[in-house]
Design brief:
The complex is a heterotrimer of chains A (307), B (357) and C (502).
Chain A: H1 3-30, H2 38-56, H3 59-83, H4 88-111, E1 126-127, H5 137-142, E2 143-144, H6 146-164, H7 166-176, H8 178-183, H9 188-214, H10 226-236, H11 241-264, H12 270-274, H13 276-288
Helix pairs in contact in A: 1-6, 1-9, 1-10, 1-11, 2-3, 2-4, 2-9, 2-10, 3-4, 3-9, 6-7, 10-11, 10-13, 11-13
Chain B: H1 3-31, H2 36-49, H3 51-76, H4 84-101, H5 106-135, H6 139-161, H7 190-208, H8 210-220, H9 222-227, H10 232-259, H11 270-280, H12 285-309, H13 314-335, H14 337-346
Chain C: E1 3-14, E2 17-28, E3 32-36, H1 43-50, E4 58-63, E5 66-68, H2 73-78, E6 81-84, H3 96-101, H4 114-128, H5 143-156, E7 161-165, H6 173-188, E8 192-197, H7 200-206, E9 209-214, E10 217-223, H8 229-237, E11 255-264, E12 273-281, E13 285-289, H9 296-303, E14 311-316, E15 319-320, H10 326-331, E16 334-337, H11 341-345, H12 352-356, E17 367-368, E18 373-374, H13 376-389, H14 406-419, E19 424-428, H15 436-451, E20 455-460, H16 463-469, E21 472-477, E22 480-486, H17 492-499
Parallel strand pairs in C: 3-8, 3-9, 6-7, 7-8, 13-20, 13-21, 16-19, 19-20
Antiparallel strand pairs in C: 1-2, 1-4, 4-5, 9-10, 11-12, 11-14, 14-15, 17-18, 21-22
Classes of the chains: A mainly alpha (307), B mainly alpha (357), C alpha/beta (502).
């Protein structure tokens, strides 16, 4: 297959974990919760996913476990920021320190400190018969692991949810103008908690994907900043499902590109290529500027009116 | 609340968090089949028991003090500098280049390395700072991205440009450029003294100078500061640069004092650790330094603990992480109006509250 | 007419303070009932009780003869009460259509049935003459259109009783006419309206009955056709001219500052200034009277350099100002008692002593070597001196200033601003929320400053204060100055009328 086709395929594959994590943040921010602890959530999701897959042999159970642990850890964040009104940014950082430490601890306890890395078998791809034989598009769209299909499905569900359902409209209002939502009888606090559950689950899934479908081992730091790039993807994608998909594809492309450039060996040390996704994020964010886009009440604690 | 009472309350939350974290740590130890009291004994011995151990603790504390001060100073101005790691690394990279390439030796070399390291860190901190001033937000994500860029750049240095033959590390810096130990049998070097000095200087600046006073005002209330004529943007930019410089200085000092070469994993995690310590230290420079030493003690002691009782070192990581989780939640809890009402009810209104008139 | 709403003996207490005291209000079906009163008269509190945000300390509410307890906003909506707040509760990033159907409980189904909902909304809009563009974003439509959306939203959720809170505050004259037409249509279709306003022209034009509130109590309820503007103004402000405690000054000695043809955001009546010219002399107090939200905020911020005017000139002590920044103005001798003491004046987390010397930490008095070493002992004793002189009551000057009561916080600001020997003092609502003792003290300080030759611009919605303190009175309404009146023997009726736009 040609270099370009290969590149595009790889972009898609590398965009998927980012997509899960970015969608996680979308649900969170749409309810006014800015969660920068995604990196931590993905880290522990990836560890638990790996562990469960290792023990049970099922990648699916690993993914599920990743989701559950993501929810559990994110509930700490939810309680601290929604009920105790702690600063969301500060507490997100706390999660970024806590969750990887927890992940590391569990790994050491279970696998010991030997340098040999345990391995699992990756999730199998599922080709959709017939469609997968279409040249190029077949491989791209119809011959991937189920998680990829799930990711696409999730994008579609998200777009429909926020665009066309009554519940989705109410959900969005919580992040835009919680006071107005409250006067209309919308349960603001409940929706905020729900958004944290979704965020934790999807970020955990994104992390679990990394160790069950992408690589077959767990190493510390394997999330490699995706949790933060996801934050940028949400901004870049203008807080819409479709936009985030494109943003993640872009960053996935940067990721895929830099690997290929390394291999192509232009004489430049490979780390310069590895920098591409990160520098791309900086450039993109600087260009977009920070006009107060995104849910207007994002990051602000919600306090009930006096009764 | 008087100054004394305020200080007391800000001690209580971190102290309780530490106790609670240790309690949970003890539970984990029991589950793993170890005796927590024995483990704690080994922990203490490992951290402070002998002169050598104390020396290692202080040596480990040194880079943490720098990054904690970096985060602390930035946050005092209301700025979230999450790029401490990148600034630390850039400082060490520049110091390494000078140490290996410049041909200078002795004290002038050391001085140049440290100053250049600070400058590099300051410049690296300037990037998100300028973007915040001109474009508004997102300095957070940008500074974190720059952490990765810095780490990769350091990788370039030790894997290709200044590689030590076939090993992915730079050659060691010449002995004359190394910082010397304060006591021959203790690992910590003059780097530790420099860190303490920086901490004291920052403390003095923040609490005893007019500029520091204004900077804190800006961090507390930007609007009132603006109305009272303070040049808010200038202070924000300065805080990015200074905090970056402190981190950069830390990186240079770590290179010259402890590591002597750039290698994979240099500086890893120090940035976020620094943020954690600053938060636990209630953003006070002196308290942050104490917290840094405490955390270093935990880390140093935990290897002895593992050797003595089999409790893995990662338990101490968990304890550290729990401390921060509890501290920040505790700080938020204490600020809630419901908590204030609860506290007043407890004291039965006997306290002479000045809400009269 | 049949009675729709009856509020009986409603009281609302916050601590020791009665925001509403023994209020009885009756609204008939199909009438426009106006609530008239100054800032702080208790209108907002009463309405918040009606829409379920507050619970009354005492009293009962009857709707259609049946007693109801309104315990939450959604319950108020269910009972057919809808409110259009002064600050709109609209989501700016959503369209008109989306805002109207938000929180809708009546439709069934997961998906929004856009076609059906649109038909319903368009029918309603047609019936009540509310012209709206359903697919535009809130940010894209005019303020008048936004208000129509709010009204339509209330109607869509089934409101029979509509509360309009200062609806004309942000509208142009033409839009106000449009609003009246809509109100008439609503009435003709059987709805009832509670109309809150301080603008006499409108009140007289549209009301059926008027209830006047003052200091949390009902003064009386009158029929519109049986009263006049001056009588209402009197009832609303309700004071005889009590002799002021202070002497008035006739001729100031020179000019402290002068504004000429200042314009800021001039198309906004709520947040702008249009062709404002005034002078404040040295040793004189000029009072700007007017209900909140007529441009006072902008005026204060321009005179202290926080905002830059779009047009016009400002002269400080006969020197024309080119650059507007707070630091320059402070150095030129301008002091400010700000509108919002906690947001704009004090650094809450710093101590009383810190806040007193906030602007002076560079001076040789308080620091050695140009700010290099703060003389903490000196600062402490100075703060003690100031606390003594300005009667600041606190447990200690090391206390965080946010823990002080409002009155004492204001005294801290006063200490800071007056001791810097300003030439011009701008005081915005300086005694808002303070008790009599604190108010008197602050007024005494201001008079003392006046005697020392300070020019004072006093901006306040508290009419008592303006009458008490001013040597000259100017009235601001919708961003314009409505007239100048003497401070000695002020013509209260004329001033009241001017405050309401006539």
């Amino acid at each position: 297959m040609s270099f370009a086709a290969n590149l595009i395929l790889a972009s898609v594959r590398m965009a998927v974990p980012l997509l899960f994590i970015a969608l996680a943040e979308l649900y969170s921010e749409r309810a006014g919760m800015v969660n920068i602890g995604l990196e931590g959530l993905a880290a522990i999701g990836s560890l638990v996913g790996f562990l469960v897959c290792f023990v049970t042999g099922s990648a699916w159970l690993g993914i599920l476990a990743g989701a559950l642990v993501g929810v559990a850890v994110n509930m700490i964040y939810a309680f601290a920021t929604i009920t105790l009104c702690a600063n969301q940014i500060v507490y997100g950082m706390a999660i970024n320190i806590f969750a990887p430490a927890l992940a590391s601890f569990i790994y050491r306890v279970y696998f010991g400190t030997g340098s040999e890395l345990s391995q699992i078998t990756l999730m199998n791809g599922i080709g959709i018969p017939g469609l997968k034989d279409i040249p190029f598009l077949g491989d791209l769209l119809f011959n991937q692991t189920p998680m990829v299909y799930l990711a696409y499905l999730l994008v579609i569900v998200t777009v429909i949810y926020f665009g066309k359902t009554r519940s989705g409209l109410n959900f969005k209002s919580v992040g835009e103008h919680p006071k107005a939502a409250a006067t209309l009888g919308i349960p603001v606090t409940k929706i905020k908690y729900v958004s944290c559950v979704l965020c934790g689950a999807l970020a955990g899934v994104g992390g679990a994907y990394l160790t069950t479908c992408y690589a077959n081992t767990y190493t510390e730091g394997n999330v490699a900043g995706r949790g933060f790039i996801a934050l940028a993807a949400v901004i870049f994608g203008r807080w819409t499902g479709g936009g985030i998909l494109l943003a993640c594809l872009f960053f996935g492309f940067c990721d895929a590109l830099q690997i290929r450039l390394q291999v192509a060996n232009f004489g430049l040390p490979y780390q310069f290529f590895q920098m591409i996704p990160y520098i791309a994020t900086v450039v993109v964010l600087s260009l977009i500027g920070a006009k107060k886009a995104g849910p207007r009440a994002g990051g602000q604690p919600y306090r009930r009116e006096e009764r | 609340m008087t100054k004394f009472k305020r200080a007391l309350t800000s001690f209580v939350v971190p102290l309780l968090s530490i106790l609670l974290a240790f309690l949970i740590g003890a539970v984990i130890m029991i589950v793993l089949g170890a005796n927590p009291l024995l483990a704690l004994k080994y922990l203490w011995k490992g951290a402070f028991g002998t002169a050598a151990n104390l020396g290692t603790t202080l040596a480990k504390a040194t880079p943490l003090i720098f990054t904690a001060l970096c985060a602390c100073f930035a946050y005092k101005c209301g700025v979230f500098n999450l790029g401490g790691e990148g600034q630390f690394i850039m400082g060490s990279v520049v110091a390494c280049l000078i140490a290996l390439q410049s041909g200078l030796t002795g004290f002038p070399a050391i001085l140049l390395c440290l100053v250049a390291g600070a400058a590099a860190g300051g410049l690296w901190g300037l990037i998100p700072g300028v973007l915040k001033i001109t474009r508004g937000q997102n300095e957070m994500i940008i500074s974190i991205m720059l952490n990765y860029v810095a780490t990769l750049f350091m990788g370039v240095i030790y894997t290709s440009w200044l590689r030590d033959q076939n090993i992915p590390q730079t050659p060691a810096i010449p002995d004359s450029v190394k910082l010397s130990r304060v006591f021959p049998n203790m690992r910590f070097t003059t780097a530790f003294l420099i860190a303490i000095a920086v901490g004291l200087i920052l403390y003095y600046y923040l609490f005893w100078t007019s500029n520091g006073f204004k900077l804190r005002a800006v961090g507390y209330n930007m609007t009132a500061s603006r109305f009272n004529g303070f040049p808010v943007k200038r202070y924000i930019l300065a805080s990015f640069i200074v905090s970056g410089a402190v981190a950069g200085l830390g990186g240079a000092a770590e290179l010259l004092g402890t590591q002597f070469r750039l290698i994979n994993g240099f500086g890893a995690g120090y940035g976020f650790d620094g943020v954690a310590m600053a938060l636990i230290g209630q953003l006070h420079p002196i308290a942050s330094m104490v917290v840094a030493i405490f955390f270093a003690a935990l880390r140093t002691g935990s290897t002895t603990m593992q050797a003595g009782t089999g409790v893995p070192t990662s338990v101490s990581d968990i304890i550290q992480a729990l401390v921060i989780v509890f501290t920040v939640a505790g700080m938020a809890l204490v600020k809630l109006p419901e908590f204030e009402a609860f506290r007043l009810r407890l004291s039965g209104g006997r306290k002479k509250e000045a809400k009269t008139v | 007419m049949e009675e729709l709403l009856r509020m009986e003996h409603i009281s609302k207490r916050f601590g020791d303070f009665y925001a509403n005291k023994d209020i009885c209000l009756s609204v008939a079906k199909g009438e426009v009932h106006t609530l008239l009163g100054e800032n702080g008269a208790g209108k907002s509190t009463l309405m918040n009780i009606l829409i379920g945000l507050y619970q009354p300390t005492e009293g009962k509410i009857f709707l259609n003869g049946k007693e109801e307890r309104i315990e939450s906003p959604s319950q108020a909506v269910k009972l057919g009460i809808g409110m259009v707040h002064q600050h709109f509760m609209l989501v700016e990033a959503m369209t008109v259509f989306e805002n109207i159907i938000l929180g809708d409980r009546n439709s069934k189904g997961l998906f929004i049935d856009r076609a059906a909902r649109r038909r319903e909304i368009e029918a309603l809009a047609e019936k009540y003459g509310l012209d709206v563009e359903l697919d535009k974003l809130i940010t894209e439509i005019s303020v008048g259109a936004q208000q129509r959306v709010e009204i339509l939203k209330a109607l869509y959720h089934g409101a029979e009783l509509l509360i309009l809170d200062e609806p004309s505050a942000a509208l142009t004259d033409i839009e106000v006419e449009g609003l009246f037409a809509i109100m008439k249509k609503l009435i003709s279709e059987g709805k009832s309206i509670i109309f809150i306003s301080h603008k006499m022209r409108e009140v007289l034009h549209i009301s059926d009955r008027i209830t006047i509130l003052r200091a949390g109590e009902v003064i009386t309820t009158v029929e519109c056709c049986k009263t006049t503007g001056p009588e209402l103004a009197n009832l609303m402000i309700g004071r005889e001219l009590a002799p002021s405690h202070y002497e008035k000054v006739d001729r100031p000695k020179g000019e402290a500052f002068r504004l000429t043809n200042i314009e800021y955001n001039k198309n906004s009546k709520h947040n702008g200034l249009s062709d404002v010219s005034l002078t404040v002399g040295r040793g004189e107090i000029v009072g700007i009277a007017g209900v909140d939200g007529n441009g006072q905020t902008q005026l204060a911020q321009i005179v202290t350099g926080v905002l830059t005017p779009d047009a016009g000139e400002l002269d400080l002590k006969d020197k024309k100002i080119a650059v507007f920044n707070p630091n320059g103005f402070i150095e030129d001798g301008v002091s400010l008692i700000p509108e919002d003491r906690n947001l704009q004046g004090l650094v809450g987390n710093m101590t009383v002593a810190d806040n007193i010397v906030l602007k002076q930490t560079d001076t040789p008095q308080f620091s050695g070597g140009k700010g290099f070493h703060l003389k903490k002992k000196t600062i402490e004793s100075y703060a003690h001196e100031m606390a003594e002189k300005y009667d600041i009551r606190c447990a200690s000057i090391d206390q965080e200033v946010r823990n002080l009561s409002g009155g004492n916080q204001q005294k801290v600001i006063l200490a800071r601003e007056l001791e810097s020997k300003p030439d011009l003092l701008v005081a915005v609502h300086p005694t808002r929320g303070l008790d009599i003792g604190a108010t008197r003290f602050i007024h005494d300080c201001m008079i003392e400053a006046r005697a020392r030759g300070v020019g004072i611009l006093l901006i306040s919605a508290d009419f008592d204060e303006i009458l008490e303190m001013s040597d000259r009175i100017l009235v601001i309404f919708e961003g314009q100055l409505m007239g100048e009146f003497p401070g000695k023997n002020p013509p209260i009726d004329e001033i009241s009328l001017a405050m309401t736009g006539k």
